[in-house]
Write a structure and sequence with these properties.
The chain is of the alpha/beta class. It has 13 helices and eleven strands. The strands form two sheets. The chain has a seven-stranded mixed β-sheet, sandwiched between helices. Strands 8-9-7-10 form a four-stranded antiparallel β-sheet. Bound molecules: zinc ion.
């Protein structure tokens, strides 16, 4: 049964809004469990696991959620992924609807680390273990912030007698294939609304959109020969790869604005005195929409065919991974902003301020605005080390990076926010963001993000009109989902 577009007017709850009692109860609940949440975030930061290897991290969440009464299901389509659900029936006095009619509120948690990014919680570049992975995208915080949200939401629903199905999606391998197999398996399609967040250097709803992308390898095959004795007998796969790469350079001029191509020669042959039998170009296409990625891919395939014709070689294509553009649900993002403004921001201690200032100083001054300007945040924020207010950035902006949340936003209404876990001017995938993600300040900002999402989610469950508005927006702007990997 498709209940996605139903108005949930049967929930016997009047508009509750953001009352101070609710905020106080939420803060008390999370404050009482603060050390438990911080321990998990610290533990995952100390045991970073890269994409497809997050066995330990995934198990930590599954055990925690099971202990809180969630029914946990590991998903076969993606290693270390899972979904955990708890049904809140609304308690006495509420007309119990049938489960299928309950709003389903989901939160997404990530937990993979980045290879080679190991870093101590220090203001100088200092790996904890040289060459080891590290949480330079703060996913040790991301998963726990969503855990805070899911547990706090259960508390609020139970105490106020509001019925809903509450879900936590364990989303591994974000830095690689990501949750696309989960999206394709329909895991998100029945959700009424989905919330998530990302560690960052500012507090803001995630108004900006992200790029759709496709990571693909074009492999060329030729014929080996002695480059000195019998070059005429060889057909160089490297020649084909180079002609193909050159075609990309010419193609750039004739691509729509916002389309990017970046590549490396991942195989260039072995020795100069052997005509290369194999060569490969590993490239990313990025574009404002999934449809544009497909158009560019079709043109690149023609270019590869041309390069092979010129060199009497052949080619194959390997799709590595691909993500759709993120389509934010503004109704949910507006509600997130209200919740963020209703919740006092954490206060940094003197040591936390000092740590942030020294970490910020380790980023070259001219590089610091790079985290702010693309999302429309003013560079003047950099006068401080920690973003001490709630901003509202990114409307009408698109960043070059991509998120697998994008695919989810094609199948369900998604709201997302950023919380300032890192000093201003510190960007993702740096040693500084890895250092900051293991610091006490980051844990405070993580819990604040969790509370903001819980408050928003509570309103979506308790205010049928709000959820109906989010769903109506989703329906009005919907486009059929097709992964960029399905070229
Ligand atoms: Zn990330």
């Amino acid at each position: 049964m498709n209940n996605r577009n139903k108005t949930f007017n049967h929930v016997e709850t009047k508009r509750i809004g953001i009352d101070t009692g609710l905020v106080a109860e939420l803060r008390r609940f999370v404050d009482e469990r603060a050390s438990e949440y911080d321990v998990i975030a610290q533990d995952i930061w100390e045991h970073p696991e890269i994409a497809f290897q997050e066995k330990r991290s995934s198990a930590l969440y599954r055990e925690r959620l099971a202990s809180q009464g969630f029914i946990v299901t590991e998903l076969p389509e993606l290693e270390n992924s899972f979904v955990a659900e708890k049904m809140i029936t609304g308690g006495a006095g509420v007309l119990a609807p049938t489960p299928v009619d309950l709003p389903i509120i989901g939160f997404m948690g990530e937990y993979d680390a980045l290879p080679g990014m190991s870093q101590a919680c220090s203001t100088e570049r200092q790996p904890r273990e040289v060459g080891a992975p590290g949480h330079a995208c703060g996913h040790n915080l991301l998963g726990v912030g969503s855990l805070v949200a899911v547990e706090a939401l259960v508390q609020l629903l139970e105490s106020r007698g509001v019925a809903a199905r509450v879900r936590y999606y364990g989303c591994p391998a974000e830095e690689s294939l990501g949750r696309i197999p989960m999206v394709k398996a329909g895991r998100f399609s029945d959700a009424s609304a989905i919330l998530t967040w990302h560690p960052a250097d500012v507090n803001t709803p995630h108004r900006y959109v992200t790029s759709a992308n496709l990571a693909v390898v074009f492999s060329f095959k030729g014929r080996a020969s002695h480059a000195g004795m019998a070059p005429h007998a060889g057909r160089s796969a490297l020649d084909a790869a180079q002609l193909f790469n050159l075609s990309m350079e010419f193609m750039r001029e004739h691509l729509e604005p916002g389309i990017m191509l970046h590549y490396v020669v991942s195989d260039g042959g072995q020795r100069p005195n052997i005509v290369p039998e194999s060569a490969a170009t590993f490239l990313y296409i990025r574009a404002p929409s999934a449809a544009m990625v497909r158009t560019v891919m079709a043109r690149l395939t023609k270019a590869a065919r041309g390069a092979c014709l010129m060199t009497e070689t052949s080619f194959t294509v390997e799709i590595k991974h691909g993500k759709c553009d993120y389509r934010p649900n503004e109704t949910i993002q507006d509600a997130l902003l209200e919740a963020m403004r209703a919740l006092p921001l954490p206060k940094p201690s003197a040591e936390e301020k000092d740590f942030a200032a020294r970490l910020q100083a380790s980023v070259a001054k001219e590089d610091r605005p790079a985290t702010l300007l693309p999302i429309g945040a003013p560079a003047s924020l950099l006068k401080a080390a920690i973003h001490a207010e709630v901003g509202d950035f990114g409307a009408g902006k698109r960043i070059g990076g991509s998120l697998d949340t994008g695919d989810v936003s094609y199948v369900a209404p998604v709201g997302q926010m950023n919380s300032a876990t890192w000093p201003l001017g510190v960007g993702a995938h740096t040693w500084q963001s890895c250092a900051a993600s293991g610091s006490p300040w980051a844990f405070k900002a993580m819990r604040w993000a969790g509370m903001s999402m819980a408050l928003t989610a509570f309103r979506l469950a308790a205010e049928p009109k709000l959820l109906a508005a989010a769903r109506a927006e989703f329906k009005a702007t919907a486009e059929p989902y097709r992964s960029t990997m399905d070229v």
